Amino acid sequence: PTGGGKTEAYLGLAAWTIAHRRIINGGTLGAGVAVLMRYTLRLLTLDQLARASGVVCALELMRGEPAWQEGDRHLLGDWPIEIGLWIGSAASPNRLGKTGDGRKDTAVARVRRYRRDGREAPAPIKACPWCATPFSRDSFACIPTERTPRNMEIRCANPACAFTGTRCLPILTVDEVIYRRLPAFIIATVDKFAGLPWLGEAGAFFGHVDRED
């Protein structure tokens, strides 16, 4: 039944799995995809993203706390604990793009449109999963520049939130970035899963990685 605690149960297990993997394998060896969730409905996927993101935010904050360090060593690993939204391009950009490429479906183009008219956010998230503050037009940015972007970062509009200023939210919503950074938790829709056999980049989800850049 609704409200029975099913989501909390699996999120608790997911958090334990991510933490255990990183404690057992130090440095960056515990990084990579630990949890891969698949949903059939996009609305359900976005709802679960909001709830799961809060758990990932908590883990990422824990990673930097003194109680989770031994000297200079982070017990939860050196790589950020992140969550990725792996869905179709209608809701989230598949590519970062760059200034002057003429494309309208990239992260760079969507960030520019959102800053201009405030409609159709670059990512299907309306508020900060940590403090529930609605995002502003300045919450999304392609870094380091829109000419040579490496990521689309999301920051809370609340200056008192832990995920603002120099610290962005640990949420990845661009396919190109997800394949490169390999977040610990991935939430996807069934149509993405159907394309796995034909998508070489997704092989990295399952451990086909031999380097870190």
Give a verbal description of the structure:
The protein is an alpha/beta fold and 213 residues long. Helix content is 30%, strand content 13%. It is built from five helices and eight strands. It has helices at residues 6-24, 42-63, 107-117, 175-181, 190-194, and strands spanning 35-39, 69-70, 73-74, 83-86, 140-143, 151-154, 171-172, 185-189. The strands form three sheets. Strands 1-8-4-7 form a four-stranded parallel sheet. It has a two-stranded antiparallel ribbon with strand order 2-3. A two-stranded antiparallel sheet has the order 5-6. Helix 1 (6-24) packs across helix 2 (42-63). It is globular, with a radius of gyration of 17 Å. The chain starts with 5 loop residues before the first helix and ends in a 19-residue tail after the last helix.
